[in-house]
């Protein structure tokens, strides 16, 4: 008899036999439980402990309901799904069978793709050039960045699939394939920007001013997403650190765009005397001087100063002396308000995923109460710190005619206007100033006449080494369609190291058709 | 005699319930055997001994009940028998009996437990229970003795204290202290029933006496670092105070005190704090402290609504699953449906236990029945809630199902006492 049973179990019908047995068992268990429930009870006595019965039964019911939120709806908890994918030892567990979805760029180029037959396999065609926005998916080091926040979608547990998963979860618990995540990035620009940084520590942000769509989000140096171990341990170069969104740097002269906007929004456009000796905001504050002062000093000469400057001239020459006075002139109230509006002290969210958001670091601008502290801050020095993404966003606000859009990486995220940062008139005036700064000012090397580049250099004093170099710009002036912000750590003069990168990127973007377009493109 | 009991004698009804339970248990057993056989074609006869004792021994126990003229609640007996039968199948499935006759200690608990059940029924059945009141102080001293002995002789193992031979005698402390409390409180019913505006205000001397007497075993459990036992004992005290005073004030105050104590204990014991942290966020250390509970949740999740089928899951992935975490194994293999049915049977057991208490003739029997039922109920709730992460783990076993000889024997003794108390004539 044992042999007949064995043959039945090991034969084709074995699983069916076990399934039938399971159903019969559950049926008997149900009958037994119900019979016990309805069995004749003793006659109730004079004391009735109904409250104890209600509390105990209610507690058991509550536990069962809570259990159901895990047992049936566990797939709605991303951390739990991640745990099971890594550590669930059941060989045919549902979450093991899902092929992880690919990540594509805006044109459908593959940025990350699964490897057939390898649960943890992942292919990243751009390698270290795109590792920061994409993150990695590694059996030992876990999941980061887009791979992390889009994990439910990529692994087939996306909200839109929940309904049919619920049905399947109850009966078979199978999901087939993860969803595809399409980004706003352009793989070619991402790669080009990474190459142009040539391994220097720095960051590039390229975005569409009218929609916040990020075309490139680059941090250098990069690292191999298939082997993140060494990068995580490298404390000297910290390649795992995403400088474009996590790096906090003094903005230097790029901050003058915001200060000029603050004044213009309030209808101020003063003319200030800018003497060579600089400007002293008050007792015990060091003089603010133009960079020319130091250049002359090194030659043994004395800088005579710019004389009287209008705002446009001051922007062209990037005069610290002027902007220190302008900052003081605007006053703490206007300054503080602008910082709030520009969201410098807030983390900007650049991707809203199913399991969390990607956001940049908070910048740092202290709440100002005294006018004189504004002299330092107005030229982007002192206590003020921003991320490259913050600079790109306020530059984009100028380009878009005043509106600051939320940066976004995922193609199907809706366009979201964050704030009217500049009045339309202010934005026009700023555009003219930034154009002039490229035509005849510090940004001259970026002048590509047919593309009407508008931009601002920045050179920010950095502790322990050469200054950080900034260049933030947009083009063309008439219908701005591209914003490029470049930061090179310890790159010296902004015009020297950051600007050439930005220039080449604008040219490349133009070749790819992103710049010269008949109208403003939001996509 | 009412018509109902004439129509269907309690023992007859209990036998009927047992027969249905046997069908469910045998199906479960076949399912486990099916998987075991497809892996190795040898019938594990020795491992089936406990189940054989179940099928053959329970009728003998029922015959004994008939002989002593027991006329209690048949539903109680049915619930105890169904749950212990399921416990045996699940333990068989988990391989607890896999050493066969070479480890008789693993096979013995159910036969001994069945005997303890019969003894329990005989002690309290037919209204005989009142004489136990005289043993109140003896039970108190015995409980202290057991705790003290554990403190001296016990070995620490996985956060619990065990005596030589891997016994955990702290199980017996619970019914002993319930017996003491029932005897002590029933003589002071008047004092503890005094309330003002719903808030219980027992005279200070009565309260002081209770606090002093209760303090000794509490200090011993603290010295033993047995958090689960301490929580359980205090919950029992609250239930019994409520039962004697029948004032919701005790329940409310007690619940508040227990919650506060449970919250506060993490500041005293690092062990408790770790359990608390894991409960709040198991994902901060998923491969360390959160490992066991997360594996348990994974087991449940893979079980889904219908379960993998008994024998077809992989509950071994959960560390020490056959003891405290047996509920996770059950959830994986019999599904949420099966769990719901098990909890239903538990609920019937407790509900009928409390009902039997209400019907008891003397305050002592009433209190004894409430305390014994309450101890099983609190134990069940704490275990199941801990395994499903609804509450922090307290390291308490699941009555009638968890692996553990002392636990099973004691639980069956307690169940027998309750079944006996349900027969008041």
Provide a concise account of the structure shown.
With 523 residues, chain A is α+β, with helices and mostly antiparallel strands.
Q: Considering the protein shown, what is the CATH homologous superfamily of the largest domain in chain A?
A: DD-peptidase/beta-lactamase superfamily
- What count of helical segments of chain A does DSSP give? 18
**Number of self-contained structural domains of chain A:** 2
Q: What is the number of E strands of chain A?
A: 17
* Radius of gyration of chain B using CA atoms only: 21 Å
Output the structural class of chain B: mainly alpha
What is the strand arrangement across the widest sheet of chain A? 8-7-17-16-15
Named CATH architecture of the largest domain in chain A: 3-Layer(aba) Sandwich
| Fraction of residues in helix of chain A | 25-40%
Straight-line distance between termini of chain A: 73 Å
Average pLDDT metric of chain A = 87
- Choose one word for the global shape of chain A: elongated
Q: Supply the CATH class of the largest domain in chain A.
A: Alpha Beta
What's the helix and strand layout?
The complex is a heterodimer of chains A (523) and B (425).
Chain A: H1 2-10, H2 14-38, H3 50-71, H4 78-87, E1 103-104, E2 110-114, E3 122-123, H5 131-134, E4 137-138, E5 142-143, H6 145-149, H7 151-154, H8 162-171, E6 181-182, H9 187-197, E7 202-207, E8 214-220, H10 229-233, H11 256-265, E9 272-275, H12 291-298, E10 305-309, H13 311-317, H14 320-341, E11 349-353, E12 356-359, H15 373-378, H16 388-399, E13 403-405, E14 417-420, H17 424-439, E15 454-460, E16 468-475, E17 482-488, H18 494-511
Parallel strand pairs in A: 1-6
Antiparallel strand pairs in A: 1-2, 2-3, 4-5, 7-8, 7-17, 9-10, 11-12, 13-14, 15-16, 16-17
Chain B: H1 3-7, H2 10-39, H3 49-67, H4 74-93, H5 104-107, H6 109-124, H7 136-153, E1 155-157, E2 160-162, H8 170-186, H9 189-193, E3 195-196, E4 199-200, H10 204-224, H11 227-245, H12 248-268, H13 270-280, H14 291-303, H15 326-359, H16 363-387, H17 405-421
Antiparallel strand pairs in B: 1-2, 3-4
């Amino acid at each position: 008899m044992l042999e007949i049973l064995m043959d039945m179990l090991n034969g084709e019908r074995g699983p069916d036999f076990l399934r039938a047995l399971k159903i019969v068992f559950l049926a008997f268990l149900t009958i037994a439980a119900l019979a016990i429930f309805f069995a004749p009870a003793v006659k109730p006595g004079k004391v009735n402990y109904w409250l104890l019965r209600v509390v105990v039964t209610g507690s058991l019911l509550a536990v069962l309901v809570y259990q159901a939120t895990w047992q049936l709806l566990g797939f709605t908890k991303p951390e739990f799904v991640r745990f099971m994918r890594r550590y669930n030892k059941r060989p045919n567990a549902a979450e093991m069978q899902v092929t992880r979805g690919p990540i594509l760029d805006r044109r459908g180029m593959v940025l990350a793709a699964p490897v057939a037959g390898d649960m943890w396999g992942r292919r990243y065609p751009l390698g270290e050039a795109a590792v920061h926005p994409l993150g990695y998916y590694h059996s030992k080091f876990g999941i980061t960045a887009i791979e992390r926040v889009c994990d439910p979608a990529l692994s087939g547990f996306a909200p839109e699939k929940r309904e049919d998963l619920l049905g399947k979860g109850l009966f078979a618990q199978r999901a087939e394939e993860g969803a595809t995540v399409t980004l706003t990035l352009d793989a070619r620009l991402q790669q080009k920007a990474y190459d142009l940084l040539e391994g220097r520590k720095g960051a590039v942000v390229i975005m569409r001013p009218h929609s916040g769509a990020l075309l490139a989000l680059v941090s250098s140096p990069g690292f191999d997403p298939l082997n993140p171990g060494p990068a995580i341990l490298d404390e000297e170069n910290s390649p795992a650190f995403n400088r474009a969104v996590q790096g906090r740097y003094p903005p230097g002269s790029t901050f003058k765009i915001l200060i000029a906007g603050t004044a213009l929004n309030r209808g101020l456009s003063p003319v200030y005397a800018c003497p060579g000796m600089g400007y002293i905001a008050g007792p015990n504050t060091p003089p603010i001087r133009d960079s020319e002062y130091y250049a002359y000093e090194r030659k043994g000469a004395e800088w005579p100063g710019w004389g009287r400057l209008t705002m446009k001239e001051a922007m062209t020459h990037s005069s610290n002396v002027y902007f220190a006075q302008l900052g003081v002139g605007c006053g703490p109230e206007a300054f503080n308000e602008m910082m709030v509006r520009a969201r410098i002290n807030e983390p900007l969210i650049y991707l809203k995923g199913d399991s969390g958001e990607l956001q940049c670091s908070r910048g740092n601008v202290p709440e100002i109460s005294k006018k004189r502290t504004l002299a330092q801050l107005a030229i982007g020095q002192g206590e003020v710190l921003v991320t490259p993404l913050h600079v790109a966003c306020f530059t984009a606000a100028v380009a878009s005619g005043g509106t600051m859009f939320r940066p976004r990486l995922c193609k199907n995220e809706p366009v979201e206007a964050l704030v009217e940062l500049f009045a339309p008139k202010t934005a026009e005036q700023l555009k003219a100033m930034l154009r002039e700064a490229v035509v005849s000012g510090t940004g001259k090397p970026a002048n590509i006449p047919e593309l009407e580049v508008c931009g601002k250099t920045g050179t920010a004093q950095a502790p322990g080494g050469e200054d950080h170099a900034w260049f933030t710009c947009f083009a063309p002036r008439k219908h701005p369609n591209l914003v490029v912000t470049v930061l090179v750590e310890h790159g010296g003069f902004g015009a020297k190291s950051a600007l050439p990168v930005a220039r080449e990127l604008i040219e490349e973007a133009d070749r790819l058709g992103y710049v010269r377009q008949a109208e403003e493109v939001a996509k | 005699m009412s018509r109902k009991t004439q129509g269907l004698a309690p023992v007859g009804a209990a036998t009927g319930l047992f027969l249905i339970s046997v069908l469910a248990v045998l199906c479960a057993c076949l399912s486990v055997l099916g998987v075991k056989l497809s892996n190795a074609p040898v019938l594990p006869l020795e491992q089936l001994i406990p189940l054989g004792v179940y099928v053959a021994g329970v009728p003998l126990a029922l015959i004994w009940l008939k002989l002593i003229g027991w006329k209690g609640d048949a539903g109680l007996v049915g619930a105890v028998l169904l749950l212990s039968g399921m416990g045996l199948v699940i333990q068989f499935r988990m391989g607890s009996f896999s050493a066969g006759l070479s480890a008789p200690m693993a096979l013995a608990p159910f036969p001994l437990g069945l005997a303890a059940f019969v003894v329990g029924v005989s002690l309290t059945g037919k209204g005989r229970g009142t004489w136990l009141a005289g043993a109140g102080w003896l039970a108190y001293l015995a409980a202290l003795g057991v705790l003290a002995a554990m403190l001296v002789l016990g070995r620490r193992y996985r956060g619990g204290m065990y005596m030589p031979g891997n016994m955990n005698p702290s199980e017996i402390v619970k019914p002993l202290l319930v017996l003491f409390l029932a005897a002590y409180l029933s003589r002071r019913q008047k004092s503890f029933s005094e309330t003002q505006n719903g808030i219980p205000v027992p005279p200070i001397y009565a309260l002081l006496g209770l606090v002093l007497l209760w303090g000794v075993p509490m200090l011993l459990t603290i010295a033993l670092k047995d958090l689960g036992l301490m929580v359980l004992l205090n919950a029992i005290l609250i239930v019994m105070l409520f039962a004697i005073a029948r004032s919701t004030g005790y329940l409310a105050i007690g619940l508040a005190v227990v919650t506060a104590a449970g919250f506060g204990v993490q500041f005293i014991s690092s062990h408790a704090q770790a359990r608390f942290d894991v409960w709040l966020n198991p994902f901060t250390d998923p491969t360390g402290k959160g490992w066991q509970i997360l594996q348990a949740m994974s087991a449940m999740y893979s079980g889904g609504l219908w379960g993998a089928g008994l024998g077809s899951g992989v509950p071994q992935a959960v560390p020490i699953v056959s003891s405290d975490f047996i509920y996770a194994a059950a959830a994986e293999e019999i599904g949420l449906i099966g769990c719901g049915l098990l909890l239903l049977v538990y609920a019937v057991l407790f509900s009928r236990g409390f009902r039997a208490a209400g019907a008891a003739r003397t305050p002592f029997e009433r209190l004894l029945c409430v305390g014994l039922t309450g101890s099983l109920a609190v134990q069940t709730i704490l275990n199941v809630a801990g395994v499903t992460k609804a509450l922090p783990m307290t390291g308490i076993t699941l009555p009638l199902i968890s692996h553990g000889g002392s636990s099973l024997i004691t639980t069956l003794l307690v169940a027998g006492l309750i079944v006996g108390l349900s027969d008041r004539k």
